Amino acid sequence: MTVTAVGRTDPAPVVPRGSAIPRDADPGPDPMNSVLGKVRPILEAFTAEDATLSLAELVRRTGVAKATVHRLAQELVVWGLLERSGCDYRLGLRLFEIGQRVHRQRILREVAQPYMEDLLLATQETIHFAIHDSLDVVYLEKIFPHRGLNEESRVAGRLPLYCTATGKAILAFSPASLFADVVRSGLKPFTRHTVTSPGRLRVQLERIRAEGIATEAEEIRLGYTSMAVPVFGGRASLVGALSITAPTYRMDPSGHAVALRAAASGISRSLR
């Protein structure tokens, strides 16, 4: 029998090379037990609609212990990632500063913006530039006239690939595995016009590949239609999609398509 001194921890047993790891071996640390694993849900608890959140609401949304949320929130305030607003918290300016340094997205926005402004002048409708992330599109830039669409979408906002014009344009020119992932996750309806049939969506994507332009008719918001084209960069790599959104009655399919293709071509040339 081996006697172990009190307060001493025996070293972990060494597993010979090539040996199987025991079934009861430690699978590794739980991400939620790390500091970053707890900080992430605190920051992600804020939605676009939240100006501020109370400590109690942060605890409710994160599921992290109140004492831990309070301690980490105080540290985030010191770092500038959160700010105090009375007794509540809000996202800090430091997050905005760091976000503006993301190289790829910053370059895409800077290149796309002049062409988006030209497109806005030509159409007087809302213009979006979006990229693909997971099963969504993320809007890098949005510009609109006084009468334009100022709801549903926002810069840094997300919407699904399958029911947005920019998303359909990206999906049509992406690997088939992405389509399979989108279908597997489910096609939730936003309006009565949202395409929720995988077969219908596949047919749409085939047409988009043939014509080079995507259309979404009132799938996200009743009364509004969008048209989008893919944007390619160096080595013909897909980098995002450019779109026009307008009230359905005001959408000019032929005229808007010409302006949209010209702007997307300009962005692609600049990126190359």
From TrEMBL:
Residues 94-272 form the IclR-ED domain. Residues 33-93 form the HTH iclR-type domain. Residues 1-33 are annotated as: Disordered. One of its GO terms (molecular function) is DNA binding. It holds the Pfam family IclR_C. The keyword Mitochondrion does not apply. This is IclR family transcriptional regulator.
